[in-house]
């Protein structure tokens, strides 16, 4: 029988593997699909076309892993600032990814090859809503954790958390012509932050006790 600690660590480990799993699968598809160009097409568009089920599964599996990580975070962060809201918002990120996989986005910018663009479908609209809600939840989660780390006088972790959420939100807006590429980079940054927090909690047991007092940031 699994102990409570073992179960918690396994839930957090789900968050550790979620980001590398998603981007390994997504980039493998992005560089092998006919007509797909990351500078013009969103990674979510990989869910369209004959092999779209691969990216649909990628979204759903990754979202489920983040939901598991959120449960692990909640079991670990029992008290203090953001103990409920931080994990809860990470859970919303996971739910948003699952919804983004279930509700497939519409063809755009000539992908899939031979597709004809039309009005936004109901599932395309729900995909966009899921992406927006998940994105806002990630930003909010990063700020909630930043506040928690500030309260614990862990300024490095606080800066890293806030910066990850802000970069995730702002970067895609800096160049509309490269928005799809920048959104992929921003997602990698934002989701890596969730995985990093999961690693932190797996290795320390709690955010309140044995962890280093500060994160060493590059100069």
Q: What Rg do the Cα atoms give?
A: 18 Å
Strand content: under 5%
What share of residues is helical?
55-70%
Quaternary structure: single chain
Order of helices and strands: HHHHHH
DSSP helix count?
A: 6
Instruction: Report how far apart the termini are.
Output: 46 Å
Overall mean pLDDT? 91
Approximate shape: elongated
Unreliable residue runs:
206-219
Report the count of strand segments: 0
- What's the main sheet like? none
Structural class: mainly alpha
SSE topology:
Elements: H1 4-30, H2 52-76, H3 85-102, H4 122-151, H5 155-170, H6 179-204
Helix pairs in contact: 1-2, 1-6, 2-3, 3-4, 4-5, 5-6
Description:
The protein is mostly helical and about 220 residues long. The protein is built from 6 helices and no strands. The protein has helices spanning about 5-30, 50-75, 85-100, 120-150, 155-170, 180-205. Helix 1 runs antiparallel to helix 6 (about 180-205), helix 2 runs antiparallel to helix 3 and helix 4 (about 120-150) runs antiparallel to helix 5 (about 155-170). The protein is elongated and about 55 Å long. The model is unreliable at about 205-219 (pLDDT under 50).
What is this structure, in a nutshell?
By secondary structure, the chain is an all-alpha fold.
